[in-house]
Design a protein that fits this description.
Shape: globular
Helix content: 25-40%
CATH architecture: 3-Layer(aba) Sandwich
Distance between the termini: 39 Å
Radius of gyration: 15 Å
Number of strands: 5
Largest sheet: 5 strands, mixed
Number of helices: 4
Length: 142
């Protein structure tokens, strides 16, 4: 990963799902909502595609694609440890996920994500656009 700052460590982008423990810890430290052990155990095996970023052997970033594998895909779990933010790791994660989708998803697939706060600026760089007012994202809190 040539854009990462070498002084910050040796970064590698790897294809693969993080461990359940790493997934839960990274979501928490990155400020994403926490997921229970049960939820992570159920959800992670259904990942379509995932990448992680490691620094000196420790996972410091991740992102996943979930969905039905044909009609609908969602990019989720974009997370970078705060100690490693600001050097382009989120961009590298998004680039890897979008490249995978462009190479494997049918051209009629609908790819979505939920953009929290200023993250929308990152996603716009990859062609994502707000759907409002034509549609709005909605959620059901269980």
């Amino acid at each position: 990963m040539s854009d990462a700052n070498p002084a910050d460590g040796d970064y590698s982008l790897l294809v693969g799902i993080p461990t359940i423990q790493t997934y839960r810890a990274l979501r928490s430290v990155a400020g994403l909502s926490e997921k229970s052990l049960d939820a992570a155990e159920r959800g992670l095996p259904h990942t379509i595609h995932a990448v992680t970023v490691t620094c000196d052997g420790e996972t410091v970033g991740m992102g996943r694609v979930i969905g039905d594998g044909g009609c609908f895909y969602q990019i989720t779990d974009i997370a970078v440890h705060p100690d490693h933010q600001g050097i382009g790791l989120g961009k590298k994660i998004m680039q890897a996920l979008v490249e995978h989708l462009r190479a494997t998803a049918p051209e009629t697939a609908y790819v979505s994500l939920i953009a929290d706060g200023p993250a929308k600026h990152l996603y716009e760089k990859f062609g994502f656009k707000a759907t409002a007012p034509a549609s709005i994202g909605m959620a059901l809190q269980l």
